Amino acid sequence: MAAFGRWKAQRLARADASRKGALDERAAPVVRLLNARARFCTTSSCAGRLVLAQGGAAEDAERRGAPKKGCEWLLVTHEPCRRDELMTALEKATGDVVFKFEPFVLHVLCRELQDAQLLHSVAIDSGFKNSGITVGRGGKIMMAVRSTHCLEVPLSHMGKLMVSEEYIEFLIHVANRKMEENTKRIDRFYKCLQLALEADVSANNLHSEETEKYHSVYVHRRKRETIQEQDVHTSPKDHSEELEPEDDPESNLGIFAEIMI
Known about the structure:
Helices cover 50% and strands 19% of the residues. By secondary structure, the chain is of the alpha+beta class. A five-stranded antiparallel beta sheet has the order 3-2-4-8-9, with helices on one face. Strands 1-5-7-6 form a four-stranded antiparallel beta sheet.
């Protein structure tokens, strides 16, 4: 646990390495909620975006097995897109261009497996059906919050537009609807996560109180038994103490007489 705390402190002290260089506004509340807990550390996030990406020669290199480099973003937005925005960006195309909707994604390092399981349950219930847990060789437990409602459509080849403007307008409508649904899922995830974390803390506190209660009862009982044992060994036996009814000879004789009569 101490090692996790040190690693988390080092991780959060790093500069944001994303292209934007800062948290997305919609993802920020979830990220802050998790990082405020000692058992979680977010490693990357994106609130969801619409991207017009040009690969050009990079896509050919990727097909040959080479790493993808130099992908150019002609347009990127975390808000619903307008037709004129997309058409203006397409005018700059010189290679193969793809229009994408990428939904909310979040990667969280978890201190224990049960912490990852809690997040996974919340993510699935909130609509992020592609979420999963991985355990690395070093024992690091990573929980990924992912969704399946992506969109990826090629629009141009070698700078030439391959679809009609009418289709582009339809495509923007579909992508914007996905963005709206994405926002709803983020809000749902945040609210469900708040409730789950509060319930988990309450359950842990109740368990601690019950454990302390049972421990106190056990200690009190052992102390009482110890005192009784000491009394038995140190006090002289009083032979004049009353016999129990079943141990009284006279009572037993009386009962025997009644039976004989």
